[in-house]
What we know:
Blueprint: E1 2-3, E2 9-13, H1 26-34, E3 41-45
Parallel strand pairs: 2-3
Antiparallel strand pairs: 1-2
Amino acid sequence: MEVGEDGVAIITMSNPPVNAVAPTGNDSLTSILLLLLLLLLLLSVLVSVFGRGISSNRFQA
C-alpha cells in the first residue's frame, strides 16, 4: 500500500489470474479496510474495466 502526499492510499492487487484475496491475507485486508475511516482509498486493480456509475439524469423530474 502506498499513501501519497494528499493522504490517498493506493492498493494494487496483483494476485493473478483473478486478483482474489487469499485467506492468509484477511488480517491485512481488515487492517486496510479500517483505514477507510481516515483515508480515501483508491483501489487499483490490473484490469481494463472502469465503472462509470449512474447518470444523474435518472434523478431529474
